[in-house]
UniProtKB/TrEMBL annotation:
InterPro entries: C56_PfpI-like, Class_I_gatase-like, DJ-1/PfpI. Residues 6-167 form the DJ-1/PfpI domain. GO terms for biological process: proteolysis. It comes from the Bacteria. Keywords: Hydrolase, Protease. One of its GO terms (molecular function) is peptidase activity. Belongs to the peptidase C56 family. It holds the Pfam family DJ-1_PfpI. It comes from Paenibacillus pabuli. CDD domains: GATase1_PfpI_like. This is Protease I.
């Protein structure tokens, strides 16, 4: 299993897009990586848009990016909440500075926008935030998955298979 020994943060908050959280989490775990779900409050159960729960194993404040190899940011409405936590932005900025894989899908681009790491980066997202991405300096493409260095982005749930593979590939290469 090529990701054995790798550790990944998966961010959670209320109204995450259920598939956009759980599909990549399971995909990364299937390849041997350890994934820690992190929310504002450790032990809190967050509920996805379609009712699937996710319990935060760690609070954001407990995490140190130097102990992790990558981070997954789900879509849904959670990104609008996640981008308001200074610790989330700090983790994303540190992962970016260390060129560790950052996976974002759908509305998750909002977190990367707020972390101010998209200037000149080629990405995709749900078309609904295309203007936001471009206004943050990103080069937006309407493609299932876009990989620009360590930033892996996808549009929506139908893109999950190639997104999961691309994130795992980036994690294996790091």
């Amino acid at each position: 299993m090529r990701l054995t020994g790798k550790k990944v943060i998966a961010l959670v908050d209320e109204e995450f897009e259920d598939l956009e959280l759980w599909y990549p989490v399971h995909r990364v775990r299937e390849e041997g990586a350890e994934v820690h779900l992190a929310g504002e409050k450790k032990g809190k159960t967050y509920i996805g848009k379609y009712g699937v729960p996710a319990e935060a194993e760690y609070s954001f404040d407990e995490l140190d990016s130097s102990n992790y190899d990558g981070i997954l940011v789900p879509g849904g409405w959670a990104p609008d909440k996640l981008r308001r936590y200074p610790k989330v932005l700090e983790l994303v900025k540190e992962m970016h500075a260390d060129r560790k894989p950052i996976g974002q899908i759908c509305h998750a681009g909002w977190v990367l926008i707020s972390a101010k790491i998209l200037d000149g980066v080629t990405v995709t997202s749900t078309p609904g935030i295309r203007d936001d991405m471009e206004n943050a300096g990103a080069i937006w493409k309407d493609e299932a998955v876009v990989v620009d260095g360590h930033i892996i982005s996808a549009r929506r749930p139908p893109d999950l298979p190639p997104y999961g593979k691309a994130f795992c590939d980036a994690l294996a290469e790091k």
